[in-house]
Amino acid sequence: MRTMSRFIVLFSCLLIGAAIYALQLRLDTDTLARTKPAAANEPEPMHPALAYWERQLADAAARSEWRQAADLASRKAAYLRSVGEQDSASAADELGRQYAARDSSGEAPAVFEPAGVELQAVAMEPYISVPAGESRPLAKFEPLSGVYLGMLGADKRVGFNMNNIEQVYGRRHAIYLSYVGWRKVQSDPVSYFPLKTAETVKALGGALQIGWEPRYGLDDVQDDEYVRTFAREAKASGIPVFLRYASEMNGGWVPWHGDPGKYIEKFRLIHNIMKEEAPNVAMVWSPNFMPMDNIDEYYPGDEYVDWIGYSLYATGGPGEKADDKSGFLQSFQPLSGKFPGKPIMISEGGVSHYNLATNQSYERWAEGQLGDLYGYLTRMYPRVKAVTYFNFGKERALRNKMEAVYDLGENPFADLLYKRSIQHDLYLSRVEPGARTGENIAYILWSQAARTDGKRKLFTRISFPQSKQPFAVGYYQAGKLLGMAYELPWEIELDFAKLDPNRPLTIAAFGRSMEKLAETSVPLPK
After folding, report:
1. What is the DSSP letter of 295?
2. Are strands 480-485 and 441-445 parallel, antiparallel or unpaired?
3. How many CA within 13 A on the CB side of residue 387?
4. C-alpha 359, offset from chain centre
5. Alpha carbon distances (Å) from 349 to 179, 369, 390
6. What pTM did the predictor assign?
7. 3-state DSSP call for residue 158?
8. pLDDT at 202 over 70
9. What is the pLDDT of residues 132-152, one digit of tens each?
10. What's the Cα-to-Cα distance from 49 to each of 1, 25, 78, 456, rounded to whole Å?
11. Mean of pLDDT values over 13-20
């Protein structure tokens, strides 16, 4: 009897697997048939978003990541609905349900879309591209356009081995973050500056961001052999160095907090020594994003600062209020206009998807926050020229008695969004003179744009509560669809020469069932 039961279970599993395989095969065949024009009998180019989802769907299924596979099948179904392929969409939906049935994680359903009263709290804000350019001289290592990619690789997959970052995340990063304790002696080779780390970064063609922390307090910061040797070794490294000296000084958790006058004196001292000894060092003055009321007190002055850096985090999950919009964008907005003559880097940035103290998971909220950072913030604020993600794993968080987990790899939804977002031309993989994006553009508010007759990029910031996002955003004029975007930041290219300057542009956000979630109309720039 026991043998017969095992046989029945095994036979049932084989049947389920065969059914899923047949459904996936049917779906792929339907999709391929849909893309073949009758005349040429050649496949049309697949939409980039759909092509990416299909690759990731196959990978997720192969790794038995059933929740992610179910989500990707749902996205595929929604896309097929948007182009009128209802039969193929139904097949994709069924595949998604079968994947979801195989998930045993006990986590919440994958779809995280606005509904009910959340739809009443939406804001839709379009932006348009303009040629990039600065009205001021560029700072040391500042790109003309674009945003340097940076990372602290303290996650489970990278494991502090910077060589793993490109393999894991699909793109080389420009800046690698490392921390150096005050008066700590490095080994192999013996030095004060982290020469071994610098060699790895140099081989990767990157730059090094150093969090240099005067752990014994400001009185121990002197013009002495330690600081001078550190500076000379920094120069000898032969790579660009972003020196984030004594960061988060506005927070009471660091021993260099509490005396703004002395802090300014010591920051200027370090600046002057680096200017004399290490011309490849850019000084980064980097407060924490909170508290905000004392940040200005610690500013050393424009003459002593190359870059403004901010530690910027989103933690705690969605707020209790139905209209809550807290997170990266809300936190950064009051900081964005400070110290206007300097470029800005998010020198440390992370979004928590799990709280170790409360055992709460909010991975889809974290995915939305990551979209706010890499999809919106870096485009809305053109002074932001670098973002370094604080990729800190769960096990290390436990050892360091931290509550928040920032590891992208432990949140499949945020991980996929990060990998996809950083492929955009906006992000730069190398710190070098004259660095710029291929398109060499920046973005301004639609309402601030002058009339144009050429082609321009357009994106729309869609702001729902709880960091929820739509599935797609469509752009229309006089009822005619001009373009549909299926990924953050909902970007398309418009040819203004083909538009009626007297008719408004209508922007509509849709859910996965292609129901309209929100809509707005804006006049064309005059």
Report:
1. T
2. unpaired
3. 30
4. 24
5. 15, 11, 5
6. 0.90
7. coil
8. yes
9. 988 889 999 999 999 999 999
10. 51, 20, 12, 20
11. 47
Of 86, 32, 36, 28, the closest CA to residue 57 belongs to: 28
8 A C-beta contact, residue 315 and residue 326: no
> How many other CB atoms are there within 10 angstroms of residue 315's CB atom?
17
User: 72 and 52 in contact (C-beta within 8 Å)?
Assistant: no
Between strands 384-392 and 344-351, the pairing is parallel
Q: Scan for tokens 């538009």, then name that residue.
A: 499
User: Rounded to 5 degrees, what are φ and ψ at 474?
Assistant: -110, 150
What is the chain's mean pLDDT, rounded? Answer: 91
How far, in Å, CA of 106 to CA of 183, rounded? 48
Under 8 Å between Cβ of 394 and 156: yes
pLDDT at 520 over 70: yes
Count Cβ atoms below 10 Å from residue 343 Cβ, excluding itself: 25
Three-class SS of residue 393? Answer: coil
40 to 37, 44, 46, 191, 326: CA distances (angstroms): 6, 10, 16, 66, 52
Model confidence pLDDT, tens digit, residues 302-342 = 999 999 999 999 998 988 787 788 899 999 999 999 999 99
Instruction: Give pLDDT, residue 25.
Output: 43
With 0-12 / 13-18 / 19 or more C-beta atoms within 10 angstroms meaning exposed / middle / buried, residue 243 is buried
Q: Is 477 exposed, middle or buried (0-12, 13-18, 19+ CB in 10 A)?
A: middle
Q: What is the pLDDT of residue 26?
A: 46
Query: Nearest Cα to 347, choosing from 136, 132, 148?
Result: 148
Cβ atoms within 10 Å, residue 64: 11
Three-state secondary structure readout of 342-389: CCEEEEEEEECCEECCCCEECHHHHHHHHHHHHHHHHHHCCCEEEEEE
Residue pair 170/416 in contact (Cβ under 8 Å)? The answer is: no
Query: Would you list the DSSP string of 183-195?
Result: TPPBTTTTBSS-H
